[in-house]
Write a structure and sequence with these properties.
The protein has about 300 residues and is α/β, with parallel strands linked by helices. It has 15 helices and nine strands. It has two domains: about 5-165, NAD(P)-binding Rossmann-like Domain (Rossmann fold, 3-Layer(aba) Sandwich), CATH 3.40.50.720; about 170-290, N-(1-d-carboxylethyl)-l-norvaline Dehydrogenase, domain 2, CATH 1.10.1040.
Length: about 300
């Protein structure tokens, strides 16, 4: 694989292993993070430390951003000492955060005025997918730029899908969250319902996994709940942010949604209970409290 100069901005739970996989794939990686000491482990593995987002862009052909929300992307890309100040004409900014589709299009327009291309390429797969390099990556932007960036994307993901023009990667990711988080909510409700009625936890998961209820959430987060494991692969705070983006985008389009607002409200209840930093499976704790039962294996 040819070496590409890649900048990586945002070394959180998912961004850190993504940047690590870029190094392992042989790319020349420069990193930057607001909390500077988070750069140290990645620099020790072969990356260079950038002084600012603009410095990272100046040293990169492809600059990746992986931060929390729309204002954060606007800040690191368009703000003071932002990517736009250092990015060369015909370089590419790849935003892999999950943010507003309309904000994405606005940023892409600003970058294009300087001759800089942009892809929006949010991901799904959580920490495990980031660590294994098997993320699903949903990409919006110019198809020729997409093809040019494939060697970089392939270092981080397994399922890489071109979704259309700028903003459509974000639309696809938000629709993914409607499905995934709605499915997780249904699984939590089913667990609490069945265990309150005396169901056997392992029999439940076995039965569901063999029929129409089979899903990633059942097979991966079901056992975590039953074992009392609530460490974040994907935090409730970030899931709630994604659902806010869904509802904002739906309002912009005057499109009614029915299940998603309810799931969002239960996530908000989980946040109020102090579970915001926990994994999304802690959603079940709201239902458990209301039902007066814990959905756990007896030895958990």
């Amino acid at each position: 694989m040819a070496t590409t100069r890649v900048g990586f901005i945002g070394l959180g739970l998912i961004g850190t292993p993504m940047s690590r996989n870029l190094i392992r794939a042989g790319h020349d990686v420069t990193v930057w993070n607001r909390t500077a000491d988070r750069m140290d482990p990645i620099v020790a593995e072969g990356a260079s430390a950038g002084a600012s987002p603009s410095d990272v862009a100046r040293r990169s052909d492809v600059t990746i951003t992986m931060v929390s929300d729309s204002p954060d992307v606007e800040d690191v890309v368009l703000g003071e000492s932002g990517v736009i100040e250092g990015a060369a004409t015909w370089s590419v900014v790849v935003d892999m955060s999950t943010i507003s589709p309309s904000v994405t299009r606005s940023i892409a327009t600003r970058l294009a005025e300087k001759g800089v291309d942009m892809l929006d390429a949010p991901v799904s797969g959580g920490v495990n997918g980031a660590e294994s390099g098997s993320l699903s990556i949903m990409v919006g932007g110019n198809p020729e730029v997409f093809e040019r960036c494939m060697p970089v994307l392939e270092a981080m993901g397994k399922q890489i899908t071109y979704c259309g023009d700028n903003g459509m990667g974000q639309v696809t990711k938000l629709s993914n969250q409607i499905i995934g988080l709605g499915n997780m909510a249904a699984m939590c409700e089913a667990l609490v319902f069945a265990i309150k009625a005396g169901g056997d936890p392992d029999a439940l998961l076995s039965a569901w996994s063999g029929g129409a209820a089979r899903s990633w959430m059942v097979e991966n987060l079901g056992p975590s709940i039953l074992d009392g494991q609530f460490a974040p692969g994907f935090m409730i705070d970030l899931a709630q942010k994604d659902l806010r983006l869904v509802l904002e985008a739906a309002a912009e389009m005057d499109t009614p949604l029915f299940t998603t607002p309810l799931v969002s409200q239960i996530f908000r209840s989980a946040q109020q209970m102090g579970h915001g930093p926990d994994g999304i499976q802690a959603y079940v704790k709201v239902l458990e409290k209301l039902a007066g039962v814990e959905a756990r294996r007896r030895d958990a």
